Amino acid sequence: MGKEAHRFLEVERNAIREIGFHEERALAAESLFSLSDEFMGSRGYFEEGYSGKSLRGSYFNGVYDYAREKTPNAYKGIVERTHYMVNALDYWKIRLLADGERLDLGKVRFSEFERSLSFEDGLYSRSFLWTLGNGKKLRVLIERILDYENPHEARQRVWLESDSPVEIDLSFLLDFDLPQWGKESQFHMWRKDDSFPAIRAKTLFTDILLGGAMEAVPSLPLKGERVEGRKEVGTRYRFLLEGKASFERRACSLHSRESGKRDLLARALAELSERKDRTFEDVREGNRLFLNRLEERGRITIEGDEEDLQGIRYCMFMLNTTYSGYSDRDNVPAKGLTGEAYSGHTFWDSETFCLPYFLFTNPKAAESLILFRIHTLKEAKERARMLDCRGACYPVATLNGEEGCALWQHASLQFQASTGTAYALYHHYNVTKDDSLLLKGGMEVLLEISRFLLDRGQWDQERKRFGYYAVMGPDEFKMMVNHDSYTNLMAKFTFELTLDFFEMMRKRHRSLQRLLKREGFGEKFLEEIREAADAMLIPFDPETLLYEQNEGFFSLPHIDVGSIPESDFPLYSHWSYDRIYRGDMIKQPAVLMHLFLFLSTTRKEVLERNYDYYEPRCIHESSLSPSVHSILASALGREEEALRLYGFASRLDLDDWNGNTGEGLHLTSIAAAWNTIVYGFGGFRSDGRELSLAPYLPRKWKSYSFRLLVDGKRLETRVEERKVVLLALDGPVDIVLYGEKRHVEGTYEAPIPDRA
Amino acid sequence: MGKEAHRFLEVERNAIREIGFHEERALAAESLFSLSDEFMGSRGYFEEGYSGKSLRGSYFNGVYDYAREKTPNAYKGIVERTHYMVNALDYWKIRLLADGERLDLGKVRFSEFERSLSFEDGLYSRSFLWTLGNGKKLRVLIERILDYENPHEARQRVWLESDSPVEIDLSFLLDFDLPQWGKESQFHMWRKDDSFPAIRAKTLFTDILLGGAMEAVPSLPLKGERVEGRKEVGTRYRFLLEGKASFERRACSLHSRESGKRDLLARALAELSERKDRTFEDVREGNRLFLNRLEERGRITIEGDEEDLQGIRYCMFMLNTTYSGYSDRDNVPAKGLTGEAYSGHTFWDSETFCLPYFLFTNPKAAESLILFRIHTLKEAKERARMLDCRGACYPVATLNGEEGCALWQHASLQFQASTGTAYALYHHYNVTKDDSLLLKGGMEVLLEISRFLLDRGQWDQERKRFGYYAVMGPDEFKMMVNHDSYTNLMAKFTFELTLDFFEMMRKRHRSLQRLLKREGFGEKFLEEIREAADAMLIPFDPETLLYEQNEGFFSLPHIDVGSIPESDFPLYSHWSYDRIYRGDMIKQPAVLMHLFLFLSTTRKEVLERNYDYYEPRCIHESSLSPSVHSILASALGREEEALRLYGFASRLDLDDWNGNTGEGLHLTSIAAAWNTIVYGFGGFRSDGRELSLAPYLPRKWKSYSFRLLVDGKRLETRVEERKVVLLALDGPVDIVLYGEKRHVEGTYEAPIPDRA
Asked: Which stretches of A23-125 are DSSP H helices?
């Protein structure tokens, strides 16, 4: 895989901690020490500025803009102009001079550097001892926290201490001058409030207003001065430090997509003043409660390997703070709010990799995720029209519902987001038996997706077989193939699901039936998708039990993945672009991905044959690949392989396995790490008729446990050396354990069967 | 095909003529009235400027620049920055005011508009009667001519005549302010001579200097004033016109790629003064001789259809003036020097469609064409390395030898330019039996192409079959396919040719053998390409006699080409880009293209079966498609179809069949029109052991004739109602006629056999 671990953080249960500054990992650390409260998020950059490698990134969910440049050769259906999350407003920025010397850890002498981010309250603190040019020493501690209960607000404390008197010049700023893609800011029309430090600006093309107001309060009786630049505003304190001093800054940011355009700054100021009495410690306490509430429902423990434990706890902290259902207009960006890579876009990962975590720990967030797709049906229908089809085609990459991927070969040829949305509707209903999302638009979404798939698919010349031509399945190393297994299988699934749900819903809700008929979803349409589903070409060989990934795959020239030198990775940067498409090497699971989605009904022999065929051909160039393989390896009883891949999945960013954590965290891969424990070691299945468990204990661990919400009630599964213990924490729960239905009241114990 | 004729020119034998201005065809006329002398060329725009639709384009062969913008997502092997022929220097520009009113045919009142371009001397003249706002009438006649003997020079005459006295203000300018792609000029650092009207500038990135000097001499004793702008310089005359006046302007342009950078303007001025005594009429006479010389060797006559005759005569005039072998650093740009479309690039058309015309009418030009590829071997080797291969990969589109196509799906997946170059080396040697081009680098080119093809090709998993994966053959509606027939067949041909030529050349030239061995072309390499050639997978079904265009083609969904509405064409603009790849519709011949290249050895049944299968699936969206089909239809005795397609090929631009003549002439399609007569109706074959003829007379014509150089001697073939007459104009010639060897001395007559 061409990957190696770059460990530089301490291994702890409740935090990540860096002792001593690791300059060569500065960018990765910026990503790892990111904070988010779903409304906004920012990287863990140094508040005072840093002349070394840094991406000063601060983002707001849903605040995006269009690219300045149009896509060249934008033939019909090709995205003319992509869109991206903008690097927006720096509400952490300080400027610190001591005896006239400017603080910049890229230039000054310092020691005793330490920083940590707590999983318990989300506090990010950083301290070091600064030795001035004149020999005086200044201890600096800076703390940041976001307020999960009031996500508009950011809090910061700056502590200074010196034994010798030092002239301090310290400014707290709100700054819009953040670079977009290393170039100038994507904002214009900056406006400031005359009396308060408050500033707003507008995005260039989408006309979104973003504004912030702040207040910085000193511990000493000091008078601040207003400071102002073209794109920034703030408060400056100049004083002689003798001993200690501290400052607390509060900043409140609002944007017009949430709050409308009127009086944005005035409202930010009003919010600030409303929460005047809420102390920094109040925020910490609130955050602790917030995180506890989520943890209560989803806690994971591991005894026996502190690295594995820290890995999963970091993942869950990041997931919980990045997405908790704050707004059903947001989705989970592939990099969260931690970097510009992937443009802040959401991929099909959110339905396939993130949804399970939320489904079983935070149902409101799960619903929000699906509502995002329901709310963007209009854009998906428009996208289908761009592709000369009826129905709805969900974008490969998006922030606002429009297709944001300017690589047409992905945007026009991949339908994973559409079939993934169908799968999410299925998964949600299958687990909750609650049809309210279907009523709120989900049924229409499903029908429109089917309409698209019907139109995009084609019959062969004899009209015997239906399937998809010129597509790219999940394996992005096969660009334009016919009869991609995953695509055909998922289209068949979507058609059949549509028929089933339609049948169910029209019986339950007569009015819905009339509505849908009016939209053209009558008997004829249903008949057409039934025909297409029945005739779907599934390239499966009953003798070898192998699915052929796509037509012709088995006769492609063989590439020995193991013989590719480490230095060739990532292949996109080192191989001629066309070369990656010319063999049987695959980038990420495709056939196996389908088996993963339908694990509860997949025969073990089929899984085994396909795993043994496809895994050796996979280079795992997608960060989501190892987790799927880990789960399948668990299902096949291949413990060592499962564990090895889990280690990679859960510490992908902490140990910067791919060497690209600096660009931002792999947020959806973080969600997949959770799947690896629950679906992998825990043998959990949620795609079949009943929820089921079949845990085993990797030898390396002493025990582990995880919690799931089942019918709204917490079920804890503890896996120990020889036994599994189920605890129904909120009342009795029904679940299948090792193939047997169990009614769990209180505690239920069972031995772990031998794995043959 | 979604095409229709838009006739607006008079039908004449020796000229094109427009009577009355056809505003709606203004752009097409600009292309059609283009002039070129190979060194430079310009569109037939109005010298005085025109506020209607216009592309003021003036180009110099080899004067190009890199794009301002980089290609986004330029993965390895993808062209980072394309290059294009720049819109350069307007040496025709005038500014004309009469009684203070500015001439602009988009605004003023005028009548009696007429313009013509003579095939006999290349004179483009335009006249009209301008009615001023004050009612006075001014007759204007403007003539342009390029000097084929002195290609740096352009001549222009302006004639004015009025019955009433009119205040004239007339400037002659050299202007660098020509828009590139509708945006600003691609030049900078304009410099002017202080005393003479002379100006030079530099391209932005390639640092090519281009300069021009001019002189405008009035018929009346007038004194000119110098006029100057930032990017222009010239001479202005102000006077009271009573009766007649005329002006003659001469302009001389030079560029540093041909003449070096030193003293460019001084040398342009020196050239101007050297030719001071050469009159406009001298130039006309020189041009007449130049064109006659070429016509003597390649004349075509048609009796019985004046449109067909004009079509082919226009084509030959344009071909002869666009490319006559002036420099072997030039190639034939797909649009000649008549527009910006295709960026002034050359495609594989020049070897496959243009070469035959030159081979049999202008051997020096044929040699130059091939030398262009030999001179750019270095760039082709560099290109192969970008694609992770050894050897040489010739660019899909180029001006300077580098790949200029920023659409990676074409640039990285098409090898037609490489195999086409191999074919050209074969064709040239086959016809001339002269191995000097092989000695001058051709052999090395061939070996390097084979080295590339060996590296790019792949063995199947059992190492039984060799072939190409992820390629785009000539049919650009199949983007990324495996075992494309044309590609595999041409690679096999190239390997075998390489082996044959190597065997021949190493016997003849011992030193060459040593040189090539040093470059790595030893026995092992030869053995490898022999193996690959023998194992090449050729998808041919001996039962149906059909070649499968590529693996899987026969099972693609069927698209009924006839049912596509006219308004959908061109498909690239009206269909979602991915949609064109999803069926058995083809854009241009692929299997048939191969059969065309090897017509002398293609069995008629094979041709017939494949023609009947593929032609109905072809939409002829390439302008080169009809001519190939016409030739094949002739070979199959399908006269009507052949004639219909010929009409399209020969008058493609004259009648603006594709509606895009305004972007520039289809220069290589123009060459293909000649093929249609000679190879089609004339049944000429030059790809086999012997040259052969098998003419027939389309019923619509009374007779036709064409001339070919055979062994350097002219052979005229006259085809009449029942007989064919061969005339050996320069001495005896051996040729096969209707399958029989004939030794033609003086005149040879034979009856035309029945076509069964």
From this structure: 26-32
Mind giving me the DSSP string for A559-628? Answer: --GGGS-GGG-SHHHHS-GGGGGSSS-BSS-SHHHHHHHTGGG--HHHHHHHHHHHGGGB---STTHHHH
Asked whether A676 and A623 are in contact (CB, 8 A), the reply is no
Q: What per-residue confidence (pLDDT) applies to B1?
A: 46
Q: Is B69 exposed, middle or buried (0-12, 13-18, 19+ CB in 10 A)?
A: exposed
Helix (H, G, I), strand (E, B) or coil at B125: strand
A76, A470, A577: residue with CB nearest B75: A577
DSSP-assigned letters across all residues of A679-693 = IIIT--B-SSSS-EE
Q: Is B182 helix (H, G, I), strand (E, B) or coil?
A: coil
Residue B730 main-chain phi, psi, to 5 deg: -120, 25
pLDDT in tens, B529-570: 999 999 999 999 999 999 999 999 999 999 999 999 989 988
The alpha carbons of chain B give a radius of gyration, in whole angstroms, of 27
Q: Which residues in A638-661 are b (16+ Cβ under 10 Å) and which e? A: bbebbbebbbbbbbbbbbbbbebb
Name the region of B462 (left: φ>0; alpha: ψ -120 to 50; beta: rest): alpha
Q: What's the CATH architecture for A39-294?
A: Distorted Sandwich (2.70)
Rounded to the nearest angstrom, the minimum Cα separation between B369 and chain A is 29
Q: How many CA atoms lie within 13 A of B742 on its CB side?
A: 22
- Residue A208 phi/psi, 5-degree rounding, is -90, 130
Q: How far apart are CA A584 and CA A607, in angstroms?
A: 19
Q: CA-CA distances (angstroms) from residue A630 to A27, A56, A125?
A: 29, 35, 35
Q: Is A524 exposed, middle or buried (0-12, 13-18, 19+ CB in 10 A)?
A: exposed
Residue A695: cis peptide before it, omega within 30 degrees of 0? no
Interface with B, mutate which of A577, A581, A585, A613 (most B CBs under 10 A)? A577
How many angstroms separate the CA atoms of A230 and A345, rounded? 30
Partner residues linked to B237 by β-bridges? B170
**Mutation site, B70, B471, B576, interface A, largest A CB count within 10 A:** B576
SS (H, E, C) B398-415: ECCCCCCCCCHHHHCCCC
**Closest-CA distance of chain A to residue B535, Å:** 14
Residues of B within 8 A of A573 (CB-CB) are: 75-76
**Residues of B with Cβ-Cβ distance to A480 under 8 angstroms:** 479-480, 581
**What's residue A756's pLDDT?**
56
Residue ranges in chain B whose pLDDT is less than 50: 1
Query: What would you measure as the largest C-alpha separation in chain A, in angstroms?
Result: 90
Residue A48 DSSP SS3? coil
Per-residue burial over B549-580, b = 16 or more CB atoms within 10 Å of its CB, e = otherwise? bbbbbebbbebebeebeeeebebeeebbbbbb
Out of A388, A459, A576, the one facing B576 most closely (by C-beta) is A388
The fourth-level CATH superfamily of domain B33-292 is: Glycoside hydrolase, family 65, N-terminal domain (2.70.98.40)
Residue ranges per structural domain of chain B: 33-292, 703-751
- A65-90 pLDDT, tens digit per residue, is 999 888 888 899 999 999 999 999 99
H helices present in A260-415, as ranges: 264-274, 280-298, 306-322, 349, 355-361, 363-375, 377-386, 408-411
Distance from CA of A570 to the nearest CA of B (A): 12
Rounded CA separation A253/A153 (Å): 7
Q: Look at the alpha carbons of B577, B581, B583, B586 in this order and tell me if their dihedral is positive or negative.
A: positive
Helix and strand totals (H; E) in chain B: 22, 30
User: A-B interface: how many C-beta pairs under 8 angstroms?
Assistant: 121
